[in-house]
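Appendix B, record 7
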Amino acid sequence: MADIAAYVKANKADNRAATLLTEAPLRIELLGLAAGSFRLFSNGIPAGADTTALLLQAVESMKDQYRDYVEPLDRKEAVALLEFYRKNAQPEDYLEGLPGGDFATLDIPAYVDNLFNTSAFTSFEKAKAAAAKGLAAFAEDPAVGLYNSAVTVLMKYYQKMYMGGNAKYDKARKNFAAALLEWQKGQALYPDANSTMRLTYGNVLPYSPKDGLKYLHFTTAKGLLEKENPDDPEFILPAGIKQLLLAQDYGRWADKDGTLHTCFLTNNDITGGNSGSPVLDAKGNLIGLAFDGNWESMSSDVMFEPDLQRCICVDIRYVLWLVEKYGGATNIINELTFAK
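Structure tokens (predicted):
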């Protein structure tokens, strides 16, 4: 324990500096859009490849990321994040190479306005047009410059904390894990949450967040029609799906109540990375896919409240209805075995 504590203490300042970078300048969404495009572009470039075509392909892959992007909000956040970083970072970690002068005296609001006014990554259309001009113009974008400036400082700390290794700390962590296993020998232990498969169990349940209000444990196709809003990207209903829903063409996927169930609630926990997890019944049959949590579950990473927090799962019957009726993928349907 002393070796672990000594390592944590020795790296406290470096960890703080790295965290400040990842949680301030690198949280500007514009930089994520720029970095994401380059990351997709540079992922295995074959010799002699048409770089412009690959750039256009990379930008096209980022199209969905722009769906919820609000440039005016990101612009305001960028000012706040850069000012926060300057106020809290050590002078030796100030960002370098930015137009407008020394970061210590930089007019941040003016710099940010220029950044957003000139960057191609503020919209999908602009990014696509920039990609068509080739790699050189793409790489000179000011958002790329700010991202590179922040990452340059970040890598200095990552190399110190992670690249060099620390034999004493590594041995201490190994011994600590062995001690925990010995201490709880014979008991069921949670596996490491990273890159491991975990199983949990729960029940399909409704919930009541406050007096006089109760949510059922399921939703139906009727709700899709009621919530449709062509002006809100979250609630656009494709015409083909709407037509099928209005016709109530549910086929074999209808519930015994005659409706098409779309989602259901369980009292399982859900957190980032769980989306898409299969939901099985007690016999191992696939009944849905976990994809979200209710509003009350937003605090579940800190404290789990079983009476209020619910995992939202899409009903597998709705998924298969879409596959068969809307997608026409009958070959997939024919490969499946159904349990009733």
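Remarks on this record: The CA atoms of residues 41 and 58 lie 5 Å apart. The chain has two domains: 2-163, 207-335.
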